[in-house]
Amino acid sequence: MYRSWFLVFSLLVMPGAAFAQSASSDSQALQALVSEVRQLRQLLQTSAVATQRAQILVYRVQAQETAVARAFERLDGARSKLAETQLHRKRMAAELKQMEEVLNDAQTPGQNPDARKEFERSIVQSKAQLEILASEEQESQAQETEREDQLRTEQAKHSGLQEQLDRLDRELENSGRQSGRSPQ
Fold it and tell me: Which of 71-75's residues contact partners 24+ apart within 8 Å by CB, and which partners?
Protein backbone atom coordinates (compact mmCIF):
# COMPACT_ATOMS: atom_id res chain seq x y z
CA MET A 1 0.00 0.00 0.00
CA TYR A 2 2.87 2.33 0.62
CA ARG A 3 3.85 1.75 -2.91
CA SER A 4 0.54 2.86 -4.25
CA TRP A 5 0.61 5.97 -2.08
CA PHE A 6 4.08 6.70 -3.23
CA LEU A 7 3.01 6.27 -6.80
CA VAL A 8 0.03 8.59 -6.37
CA PHE A 9 2.20 11.13 -4.50
CA SER A 10 4.83 10.97 -7.22
CA LEU A 11 2.29 11.53 -9.92
CA LEU A 12 0.85 14.55 -8.15
CA VAL A 13 4.10 16.24 -7.05
CA MET A 14 6.40 15.58 -9.99
CA PRO A 15 4.35 17.31 -12.68
CA GLY A 16 4.17 20.46 -10.50
CA ALA A 17 7.94 20.57 -10.21
CA ALA A 18 8.32 20.04 -13.92
CA PHE A 19 5.75 22.78 -14.55
CA ALA A 20 7.69 25.16 -12.28
CA GLN A 21 10.87 24.47 -14.21
CA SER A 22 9.04 24.95 -17.50
CA ALA A 23 7.56 28.25 -16.31
CA SER A 24 10.97 29.60 -15.27
CA SER A 25 12.60 28.57 -18.57
CA ASP A 26 9.66 30.13 -20.48
CA SER A 27 10.14 33.33 -18.49
CA GLN A 28 13.85 33.40 -19.33
CA ALA A 29 13.12 32.77 -23.00
CA LEU A 30 10.53 35.55 -22.97
CA GLN A 31 13.00 37.95 -21.33
CA ALA A 32 15.61 37.05 -23.98
CA LEU A 33 13.11 37.69 -26.76
CA VAL A 34 12.06 41.03 -25.26
CA SER A 35 15.73 42.03 -24.96
CA GLU A 36 16.40 41.06 -28.56
CA VAL A 37 13.34 42.98 -29.79
CA ARG A 38 14.57 46.05 -27.94
CA GLN A 39 18.01 45.70 -29.51
CA LEU A 40 16.46 45.33 -32.95
CA ARG A 41 14.28 48.40 -32.40
CA GLN A 42 17.34 50.43 -31.33
CA LEU A 43 19.25 49.19 -34.36
CA LEU A 44 16.38 50.13 -36.68
CA GLN A 45 16.13 53.61 -35.16
CA THR A 46 19.88 54.12 -35.51
CA SER A 47 19.73 52.85 -39.08
CA ALA A 48 16.82 55.18 -39.93
CA VAL A 49 18.70 58.20 -38.57
CA ALA A 50 21.85 57.22 -40.46
CA THR A 51 19.83 56.77 -43.65
CA GLN A 52 18.30 60.22 -43.28
CA ARG A 53 21.72 61.75 -42.65
CA ALA A 54 23.08 59.99 -45.72
CA GLN A 55 20.19 61.18 -47.89
CA ILE A 56 20.65 64.75 -46.71
CA LEU A 57 24.39 64.61 -47.37
CA VAL A 58 23.87 63.11 -50.83
CA TYR A 59 21.42 65.90 -51.67
CA ARG A 60 23.86 68.52 -50.41
CA VAL A 61 26.70 66.97 -52.42
CA GLN A 62 24.54 67.03 -55.56
CA ALA A 63 23.58 70.65 -54.96
CA GLN A 64 27.23 71.53 -54.38
CA GLU A 65 28.25 69.73 -57.57
CA THR A 66 25.78 71.96 -59.41
CA ALA A 67 27.29 75.03 -57.73
CA VAL A 68 30.80 73.89 -58.74
CA ALA A 69 29.63 73.39 -62.33
CA ARG A 70 28.09 76.87 -62.41
CA ALA A 71 31.26 78.40 -60.95
CA PHE A 72 33.31 76.60 -63.58
CA GLU A 73 31.03 77.89 -66.34
CA ARG A 74 31.38 81.45 -65.03
CA LEU A 75 35.16 81.04 -64.91
CA ASP A 76 35.16 79.67 -68.43
CA GLY A 77 33.08 82.65 -69.57
CA ALA A 78 35.46 85.08 -67.87
CA ARG A 79 38.45 83.39 -69.51
CA SER A 80 36.80 83.54 -72.92
CA LYS A 81 35.99 87.22 -72.47
CA LEU A 82 39.57 87.93 -71.38
CA ALA A 83 41.02 86.07 -74.37
CA GLU A 84 38.66 87.92 -76.71
CA THR A 85 39.58 91.29 -75.19
CA GLN A 86 43.30 90.52 -75.40
CA LEU A 87 43.01 89.45 -79.01
CA HIS A 88 41.03 92.60 -79.90
CA ARG A 89 43.57 94.81 -78.10
CA LYS A 90 46.49 93.15 -79.91
CA ARG A 91 44.80 93.63 -83.27
CA MET A 92 44.05 97.26 -82.45
CA ALA A 93 47.67 97.82 -81.36
CA ALA A 94 48.94 96.29 -84.61
CA GLU A 95 46.58 98.46 -86.69
CA LEU A 96 47.66 101.56 -84.76
CA LYS A 97 51.31 100.75 -85.35
CA GLN A 98 50.67 100.36 -89.07
CA MET A 99 48.76 103.63 -89.17
CA GLU A 100 51.62 105.46 -87.41
CA GLU A 101 54.14 103.95 -89.82
CA VAL A 102 52.06 105.04 -92.80
CA LEU A 103 51.78 108.54 -91.32
CA ASN A 104 55.55 108.76 -90.78
CA ASP A 105 56.29 107.46 -94.26
CA ALA A 106 53.83 109.87 -95.85
CA GLN A 107 55.48 113.04 -94.63
CA THR A 108 56.48 114.11 -98.07
CA PRO A 109 55.92 117.60 -99.41
CA GLY A 110 52.81 118.07 -101.52
CA GLN A 111 50.64 115.68 -99.51
CA ASN A 112 46.99 116.69 -99.05
CA PRO A 113 46.82 118.41 -95.62
CA ASP A 114 43.13 117.56 -95.10
CA ALA A 115 43.72 113.88 -95.71
CA ARG A 116 46.66 113.95 -93.32
CA LYS A 117 44.58 115.61 -90.57
CA GLU A 118 41.83 113.01 -91.05
CA PHE A 119 44.40 110.25 -90.78
CA GLU A 120 45.84 111.80 -87.60
CA ARG A 121 42.31 111.92 -86.09
CA SER A 122 41.88 108.24 -86.88
CA ILE A 123 45.13 107.54 -85.05
CA VAL A 124 43.95 109.52 -82.01
CA GLN A 125 40.65 107.60 -81.99
CA SER A 126 42.48 104.30 -82.29
CA LYS A 127 44.72 105.23 -79.34
CA ALA A 128 41.63 106.07 -77.27
CA GLN A 129 40.06 102.74 -78.21
CA LEU A 130 43.27 100.96 -77.32
CA GLU A 131 43.21 102.56 -73.86
CA ILE A 132 39.59 101.45 -73.39
CA LEU A 133 40.53 97.91 -74.43
CA ALA A 134 43.47 97.92 -71.99
CA SER A 135 41.07 98.94 -69.22
CA GLU A 136 38.59 96.22 -70.26
CA GLU A 137 41.42 93.70 -70.26
CA GLN A 138 42.33 94.63 -66.68
CA GLU A 139 38.68 94.30 -65.65
CA SER A 140 38.47 90.92 -67.38
CA GLN A 141 41.61 89.75 -65.58
CA ALA A 142 40.15 90.85 -62.25
CA GLN A 143 36.90 89.06 -63.05
CA GLU A 144 38.80 85.92 -64.03
CA THR A 145 40.68 85.98 -60.72
CA GLU A 146 37.41 86.46 -58.82
CA ARG A 147 35.81 83.55 -60.69
CA GLU A 148 38.82 81.35 -59.93
CA ASP A 149 38.46 82.19 -56.22
CA GLN A 150 34.74 81.38 -56.36
CA LEU A 151 35.45 78.06 -58.05
CA ARG A 152 38.06 77.16 -55.42
CA THR A 153 35.58 78.06 -52.67
CA GLU A 154 32.84 75.91 -54.20
CA GLN A 155 35.29 73.04 -54.72
CA ALA A 156 36.40 73.29 -51.08
CA LYS A 157 32.76 73.12 -49.94
CA HIS A 158 32.25 70.09 -52.18
CA SER A 159 35.33 68.40 -50.76
CA GLY A 160 34.09 69.04 -47.21
CA LEU A 161 30.74 67.44 -48.01
CA GLN A 162 32.48 64.49 -49.65
CA GLU A 163 34.56 64.04 -46.49
CA GLN A 164 31.40 64.08 -44.36
CA LEU A 165 29.83 61.49 -46.63
CA ASP A 166 32.94 59.32 -46.44
CA ARG A 167 32.96 59.64 -42.64
CA LEU A 168 29.30 58.62 -42.47
CA ASP A 169 30.01 55.68 -44.74
CA ARG A 170 32.84 54.52 -42.46
CA GLU A 171 30.61 54.95 -39.39
CA LEU A 172 27.88 52.86 -41.00
CA GLU A 173 30.39 50.24 -42.04
CA ASN A 174 31.82 50.06 -38.51
CA SER A 175 28.33 49.94 -37.04
CA GLY A 176 27.44 47.09 -39.37
CA ARG A 177 30.54 45.18 -38.36
CA GLN A 178 29.85 45.70 -34.67
CA SER A 179 26.20 44.66 -34.94
CA GLY A 180 27.31 41.61 -36.93
CA ARG A 181 29.67 40.59 -34.07
CA SER A 182 27.23 41.23 -31.23
CA PRO A 183 25.62 38.12 -29.73
CA GLN A 184 22.07 37.48 -30.88
Answer: 71/147, 71/150, 71/151, 71/153, 71/154, 71/155, 72/151, 74/147, 74/150, 74/151, 75/144, 75/147, 75/148, 75/150, 75/151
